[in-house]
Write a structure and sequence with these properties.
It is a single chain. With 89 residues, the chain is mainly α. It is built from 3 helices and no strands. The longest helix is centred in the middle third of the chain and has 25 residues. The N and C termini lie far apart (33 Å). The relative contact order is 0.20.
């Protein structure tokens, strides 16, 4: 119990990026596309869809979290610098 305090997880995978689960979804979509083979270009629309959808959703999620957590979210963003892809973006 947190006694009314708001806490954000900054350890483990969640300390690597703010939306690490989105990165996992993109990786899984790439794996599915690779099963079809690198020469079947239309299957890459599936991971491309995830990239477009989740990158846009990340921006919305950050706005919602900023409204919910306020200054705590700013501190969290300072500790967890990457949005989706650790050490890249």
């Amino acid at each position: 119990m947190t006694d009314g305090k708001k806490l954000l997880l900054v350890n483990g995978w969640w300390g690597k990026s703010r939306h690490i689960n989105y990165f996992g979804e993109i990786l899984m979509a790439c794996a599915v596309a690779l099963v079809a083979g690198p020469n079947v270009l239309w299957v890459w629309l599936y991971p491309l869809y995830y990239v477009a959808f989740l990158f846009a959703r990340q921006a919305d999620d950050d706005k919602i979290c900023k409204a919910k957590y306020g200054e705590l979210w700013d501190k969290y963003m300072a500790k967890v610098k990457y949005r989706i892809i650790p050490y890249i973006w």
